[in-house]
Amino acid sequence: MTFQIVLIIEPLVHRYFGWDANPQPPRSAIAVSKDRMMSLDLPPPIAAYVDANARLDVDAMLEPFAAGAVLRDNGAAFQGHAEIRTLFEEEVVAVRAIFTPDTVRHEGDQVVVEGPANGDFKGSPIRFTYRFTLAGDAIEALEVTA
Fold first, then answer.
1. Three-class SS of the chain
2. Helix axis angle, 44-54 relative to 27-39, nearest 10°?
3. End-to-end CA distance of the chain
4. pLDDT tens, residue order, the chain (146 aa)
5. Do the beta carbons of residue 144 and residue 128 sit within 8 Å?
6. What is the pLDDT of residue 88?
7. Which of 45, 48, 58, 122 is deepest in the core (most CB within 10 A)?
8. CB distance 81 to 63 below 8 Å
9. Is the four-CA dihedral 56, 60, 65, 67 of positive or negative sign?
10. What are phi and psi of 115, to 5 degrees?
11. Residues 6+ apart with CB under 8 A from 130
12. Options 3.40.50.720, 3.10.450.50, 3.20.20.70, 3.30.70.1350; which CATH number does 25-145 get?
């Protein structure tokens, strides 16, 4: 008698070794992020960014940023869409980092949004503070700290 065992592990192996060319967040992460975001009163450009991040959509994540926007991430500065795109591709999408805001407040001219980010990175989830400066319907500056 011969037994043949077929294991369908290819997707798990690809994910483990990072071979997935088009990473997608788990559907549960998107649902949780959208539910929490809907309960917060986020200005439209911030809501658009958070929604795009939940889908790991770099183009949509960049849309609400002004052309000359500055993003400071734990001290490092990235200016303009090209530099911010590189940051999103290498530090957000690559590790499937999804920010799920749970608090929002206004401090002077800034909108401060806090919440955990979950993903495939050491220490996940990590709580972050995002300090947005808006100019009309665009994000002019964003400072991210853990």
1. CCCCCCCCCHHHHHHHHCCCCCCCCCHHHHHHHHHHHHHCCCCHHHHHHHHHHHCCCHHHHHCCEEEEEEEEECCEEEEHHHHHHHHHHHHHHHHCCEECCCEEEEECCEEEEEEEEECCCCCCCEEEEEEEEEECCEEEEEEEEC
2. 170
3. 59
4. 333 333 333 443 334 444 454 555 444 444 444 444 447 899 999 999 999 999 999 999 999 999 999 999 988 999 999 999 999 999 999 999 999 999 999 999 999 999 999 999 999 999 999 999 999 999 999 999 99
5. yes
6. 98
7. 45
8. no
9. positive
10. 165, 175
11. 99, 101, 112, 113, 114, 142, 143, 144
12. 3.10.450.50
Say if CB 133 and CB 141 are below 8 A apart. Answer: yes
How many residues does this entry show for the chain? 146
Cβ neighbours, 10 Å, residue 136: 7
